[in-house]
Amino acid sequence: MEAVVAGVGQVQWALAGHLSAEKGLRTGASVRCGYGGVAWGSRPAVRCASERRREEALRVRAVSADGGGGEGNGERFGRGGGGGDNGGNGGDYGGGGRDGSSGGDDAGGRAPESSSGILAWYMDRTQKNPVTTKAITAAILNLLGDIFCQLVIDKSDKVDVKRTAVITFLGFILVGPTLHTWYLALSKVVTATGLTGAGVRLLLDQFLFSPAFVAAFFAALLTLEGRPKDVIPKLKQEWKPTVVANWKLWIPFQFVNFLLVPQNLQVAFANVVALAWNVYLSFASHKEVAIAIPTATVDLEMSPFDEETKE
Questions:
Q1: What pLDDT sits at residue 267?
Q2: Region annotation Disordered: residue ranges (predicted)?
């Protein structure tokens, strides 16, 4: 009797497998079914390969929702899947990483949560393209500072476009790249930390770099404006008061900058006061150069009566 029942169970199991295979063929799925032992009153433990693959894919997709390994289907060891919201293409065994590089694990690197705000965007740019980003920033600050100087300080009726274009270009090719290189060099030359490190950087910045940079700025600006003959008179007239004004504004600010701000953020932090400084630089560099009038000397001849008077 038990043999008959077991035989009936096997027939039922075979029919179930046949129907499942037939359904898989209709849906286009690849079906490989097997069966385990059959006991009285129990159900066969059936597992199809298509079901296993489907569950595997769901698990991998849950892990790599943002990293996305595989050829678009979340396979565990797929090649070059998409990298999520901010990730790039993945490598052989993973999806996109945090910044678009290859993911490090088999399920794909997880992209970061989206950050909003201009500051987050700017800091991302300074990490990826530091020189270009700081050059563009300096150009924009020079442009705004010059326009403010012309309209508010000089009280001009309209903006001198040529003057603004020159000082904007100077910010791009000179100010931004030079400041980036200088701050980077300071961080490498001065390795001390705390008050000592900030003090040494401040001395080098304000008493070595700043006087030379002010002179270079005046010389470059006047040359680009087609007035190279005015460079020496301008330096004699404006260099010293400009350097003194620079010390008054930048010494306290730069001390805080060097003491508390990481090196990669120092140029960005300096931009807080750079707009005001650029207004002053624009004003000082475009002041009329005073023409020195030589004092006339008159030689007075002594009258012959003077000699007689002396006698």
A1: 75
A2: 64-112
Please give the pLDDT value at position 79: 38
Query: What does the DSSP assignment read for the chain?
Result: -HHHHHHHHHHHHHHHHHHHHHHHHHHT-----------TT-------HHHHHHHHHHHHHHHTTTT--TTTT--TT-SS---TTT-----TT--B-TTSSB-SSTT-PPPPPP--SHHHHHHHHHHHSHHHHHHHHHHHHHHHHHHHIIIIIS--SS--HHHHHHHHHHIIIIIHHHHHHHHHHHHHH----HHHHHHHHHHHIIIIIHHHHHHHHHHHHHHHTT-GGGHHHHHHHHHHHHHHHHHHHHHHHHHHHHHHS-GGGHHHHHHHHHHHHHHHHHHHHTSPPPPPPPPP--PPPPPHHHHHHH-
Q: Count CB neighbours of 64 within 10 A.
A: 29
- Mean pLDDT score across all residues of the chain: 72
Q: Note the pTM of the prediction, 2 decimals.
A: 0.57
